[in-house]
Amino acid sequence: MSVEEERQWAMFLHLSAFSGFVIPFGSIVAPLVMWLVRRDRSAFVDEQGKEAVNFQISILIYTFISIPLCFVLIGFFTLFAASILEIIFTIMAAVRASEGRHYRYPLTIRMIT
């Protein structure tokens, strides 16, 4: 895989998380499938795929924690914050990946190493 292809696949891998706004659990399934298909061809795509999947799983966990907190009103704030951070960090990761730079999402629980 050429360097340009690595960058493009890593960028698309991060951006595929936005499918979750249209398809239920698409934010996890799309990056996971792309990562599993391309991980053996490039170390850069493998690393960025792990980061994207870990971040999306972390956001899902934060969302599930926030839902019961809505009964005490703080959950609305945390749901809003998680959504905004997901959008911002995903765009930042896609831009960095397109530049060929490694990106580590903040606030991520790294389950896949």
Q: Kindly report how far apart the N and C termini lie.
A: 22 Å
Q: Radius of gyration, rounded?
A: 14 Å
User: What's the total helix number?
Assistant: 4
Instruction: Work out the oligomeric state of the chains in this entry.
Output: single chain
Number of domains: 1
| Share of helical residues | 55-70%
Low-confidence stretches: none
Shape: elongated
Strand content: under 5%
Overall average residue pLDDT:
94
Secondary-structure-based class equals: mainly alpha
The major pleated sheet works out as: none
> SSE string, helix = H, strand = E?
HHHH
Q: Please provide the count of β strands.
A: 0
Q: Your description of this structure?
A:
With 113 residues, the protein is mostly helical. It has one domain. Helix 1 runs antiparallel to helix 2 and helix 1 packs antiparallel against helix 4. The mean pLDDT is 94.
Notable characteristics:
113 residues, mainly alpha, 4 helices, 69% helix
